[in-house]
Amino acid sequence: MVPILGTIASSFDNTVVVARGIFAGGDPLTNTIDYIEIATTGNATDFGDLTQSKQTTAPGASSTRGLFSGGYTGSASNVIEYITIASARNAVDFGDLLNAGYSNAGCSNSTRAIMAGGTGGTNYAIEYVTIATIGNSSSFGSLSNATATNFAGCASPTRGVFGGLSANSGVEYITIATTGNSTSFGSLSVNPRVGVGSCSSSTRGLFTGGNTGSYSNIIDYITITSTGNATDFGDLSQTRGYAASCSSETRGLTGGGYSGSAAVNTIDYVTINTTGNAIDFGDLTVARYGLSALSNSHGGL
Predict the structure, then answer these.
(1) Which of 129, 165, 183, 263 minimizes the number of CB atoms within 10 Å of its CB?
(2) Residues 144-198: pLDDT tens digits?
(3) Regions of the chain where pLDDT drops below 50
(4) Cα–Cα distance measured from residue 195 to residue 187, given in angstroms and rounded to the nearest whole number
(5) How many other CB atoms are there within 10 angstroms of residue 208's CB atom?
């Protein structure tokens, strides 16, 4: 069965699963979870609630289950919680991180979720869990940037990439199926730049928005299988940082963020395998920044 745009066909039973994007948490502190169908346009719909009101969690997902790890609840959290993406229900406890933290980054393939860096714990640590199995995280290795905060991750099925690491806007990568320390990939197109969003197809990663000393509308892209500096892709519809991005294999979305004066509720989209400016998709249910996003159809699957 050949999947149509924005759907996934299961190899087990030919079930067609709608490509769904999830946006969760944020500042002002909230437990709100929203969802959208990536192949359409329109406003987000309420999905349910996180177990805690929090911001800046590390997201990761398989085609069925989404995880949000750590975050800031008023202090650093070590809670990992999960949702079943095809349903619309509240998040459930999954386990605990080794290191409580927030402003960390996440990525995943179909098997493993990776959580890296952050503030409030050991901010260069990389941890992982097996998505299908409930339990606490295990040590994976370390980032080479020991002050990694307010950055973002994306993935192919084999490689995880983290971009916008602290002041040097570094990009680093890991091999998801192994354990070990990250390796330098390159840097973003503008330095310094923190508070980016990130999403990917299986071949191309995007880094969106951020704070360069002022708020930015920049979208950069990388080719995940190579190494090197990011290249300009286009612009978001508005200047913002601390937004969250998610994707299908064909379309990347960026939602929420901080404009420099207020939280925004805007969701934009781009076609990942082209270059060009983002187009309005719709609005989140609540304007917020420091939120996290994932999908059941991202480039790591």
Answers:
(1) 183
(2) 876 678 899 999 999 999 999 875 678 999 999 999 999 999 999 988 889 999 9
(3) 1-15
(4) 14
(5) 32
Whether the full predicted model's pTM is greater than 0.90, yes or no, is: yes
Alpha helices in the chain (DSSP H): none
Q: Radius of gyration (Cα) for the chain, nearest Å?
A: 17
Q: What is d(CA 100, CA 107) in angstroms, rounded to the nearest whole number?
A: 17
The strand ranges marked E within 85-223 are 92-96, 105-108, 112-116, 125-130, 138-142, 152-155, 159-165, 170-175, 183-187, 197-200, 204-208, 218-223
Residue 271 Cα distances to 217, 234, 250, 258, 300, angstroms: 16, 11, 6, 23, 17
Q: How far is CA 140 from the centre of its chain?
A: 19
* Distances in whole angstroms, Cα of residue 125 to Cα of each of 40, 134, 142, 143: 37, 21, 5, 6
With H, G, I as helix, E, B as strand and everything else as coil, classify residue 230.
coil
For residue 296 the two structure tokens come to: 């059941």
The domain 20-295: what is its CATH number? Answer: 2.120.10.80
Amino acid at 130: T
DSSP assignment letter at 2? P
